Amino acid sequence: MSEPPVTVMVVDDHPMWRDGVARDLSERGFEVRATASDATSALRIARTVTPDVVLMDLNLGDTSGVEATLQITQEIPGTRVLVLSASGEHADVLEAVKAGASGYLVKSASAEELVDAVRRTAAGDAVFTAGLAGLVLGEYRRMAITPDSEHQAPQLTERETDVLRLVAKGMTARQIATKLVISHRTVENHVQSTLRKLQLHNRVELARYAIEHGLDQDGESEEQE
């Protein structure tokens, strides 16, 4: 029995671009449940159709896509937001991630890159256009230089720490399961337990926490260019 298609909503204020992306995704097997042209209608429609992934433009007229991203990720926990923007400005990328976006692609991405990004976002991965992931990681490493002394780090088990470290490296749950020789369900259980302990909401925040606390740095880490 085949898996149900990934459900998507496309938010963009340019009708030709919005309809073109929706059509391309439909032709590649995604279920495009809705489109929207502004932040207000995006939130209202997303509440109704609850897609797996919202493709979000940042320039939506009077209300920023960042604000729409924040509202959707806070109000609809099962929906992930993948930003698809013409802007590659560092400030825009960081604001989107801080608002809860699971990833960020620039509109110069190929159709293949977009399809892959939507599938990976639906699966819970953090997906970025080449070069932008390093920007986000670097920013949170800089933030980690000044630790928050008001909050004591919760106690994680050794296995939870192992899983967290691999999440920080961008590995999927299935890849982690293979590496640690445990079941996919066990990995998911550890992820959910760690999210509860750290009072976080999704794997993007979990990866961010690991990076802030240096858990992505170990002997297996590859040197960044």
Verbal overview:
Residues 7-122 form the Response regulatory domain. With 225 residues, the chain is α/β, with parallel strands linked by helices. The protein has 10 helices and 6 strands. The chain has a 6-stranded parallel beta sheet with strand order 2-1-3-4-5-6, with helices on both faces. Helix 1 links the parallel strand 1 and strand 2. The chain starts with 6 loop residues before the first strand and ends in a 13-residue tail after the last helix.
Estimate nothing, just give the exact number of structural domains.
Answer: 2
Low-pLDDT runs: 144-153, 219-225
The count of helical stretches stands at 10
Shape: globular
Mean pLDDT: 80
CATH topology of the largest domain: Rossmann fold
CATH architectural label of the largest domain: 3-Layer(aba) Sandwich
Helical amount: 40-55%
Structural class: alpha/beta
Cα gyration radius (Å):
18 Å
Spatial strand arrangement across the major sheet? 2-1-3-4-5-6
CATH superfamily of the largest domain: Response regulator
Strand content: 5-15%
Oligomer: single chain
Supply the CATH class of the largest domain.
Answer: Alpha Beta
SSE topology string: EHEHEHEHEHEHHHHH
Largest β sheet strand count, sense and barrel closure: 6 strands, parallel
Straight-line distance between termini: 43 Å
Q: Give me the count of strands.
A: 6
Protein name: LuxR family two component transcriptional regulator
GO molecular function: DNA binding
Keywords: DNA-binding, Phosphoprotein
Modified residues (4-aspartylphosphate): 57
